[in-house]
Amino acid sequence: MSMLAILIGTLAFALVAPVLGCLLAGVDRIVSARMQGRVGPPLLQPYYDVRKLIEKDNVSVNSTEGVYVTCALVFAIIAGGIFFSGGNLLMCVFVITLSSLFFIVAAYSTRSPYAEIGANRETLQVMAYEPMVLFMAVAFYLAAGTFDTAGVFELGTPVIATIWLVFLGFLFVLTIKLRKSPFDLSYSHHAHQEIVKGITTEMSGKTLAKVEIMHWYENILFLGWIGLFFVWGNPFSLILAVAVVLLVYFLEIWIDNNFARVKWQALLKSAWIVALVAGGVNIAVLTFLPYL
């Protein structure tokens, strides 16, 4: 993959992803409200909220908090650019993890006990989903013969035909990455979940606005990973991928509104068991099948 293609992909992702992410967040709120018997806010309510945050003054205990959040946002954009430009999936995984680490350090830098608890829980979430995400990247390489996401367009069948068990495992940890209940331990998008706002307790104004925009970028990237399983050499597979992505996002909203938050022990144990069973077994089969 050429550096120019990645730069173009990153620029396109930086412009398009927040628009789609904002619309998805609006749909999330509307669908959640209907599931709870409410009318819900307008579709563009997430945009109105972010615009209001940008207009507010920052009230922070130090100046480094905003720098760390900015770094987290930048790396999230770079990760999306790498993925959607057809670049290396494993590198994309490493970059988005680096974004998560900057977000955690931003919370720790405030020295607030509430933010530190949120940062601790965010760290546990990273430890929980990261093994399955790495297994997904390795399984993709074994199925496609390359880490480059552009390689799927040269395949005769979608990779889910051979790594469907990995897909189910990633579907499980996707709930953690999207911060949906029952795994929204560090930060919830719904006000009814907690009085103190977890990892973002000390964030306000433009800093909090950057956090919300970063989540829009992350959501589009993670859903892009879902669509990757269903794309192959047929151009019409892109339509199938989009349909599956929308179905999966609706499933995540349904799960978010029907399950109570679990303890961190259950989060860590269940995610690692799923990673070992789904990821480990599928990779073992792909590795040793040619020798049988």
What this model shows, in words?
- Its main location: membrane.
- One of its GO terms (cellular component) is plasma membrane.
- The protein has 292 residues and is mainly alpha-helical.
- It has one domain.
- 68% of the residues lie in helices and 0% in strands.
- The protein has 9 helices and no strands.
- The model has no long low-confidence stretch (mean pLDDT 90).
List the helices and strands and how they pair.
Elements: H1 3-35, H2 45-55, H3 64-84, H4 89-108, H5 113-144, H6 164-177, H7 205-228, H8 237-256, H9 264-288
InterPro entries: ComplexI_Subunit1, NADH_UbQ_OxRdtase_su1/FPO
Pfam families: NADHdh
Organism: Enteroscipio rubneri
Number of domains: 1
The low-confidence runs, each spanning 5 or more residues with pLDDT under 50, are: none
* Helix-strand category: mainly alpha
Can you summarize the main beta sheet?
A: none
Q: Roughly how much helix do the residues carry, as a percent range?
A: 55-70%
List the main descriptive attributes of the protein structure presented here.
292 residues, mainly alpha, 0% strand, globular, transmembrane, Ech hydrogenase subunit EchB
Short description:
The chain is mainly alpha-helical and 292 residues long. Helices cover 68% and strands 0% of the residues.
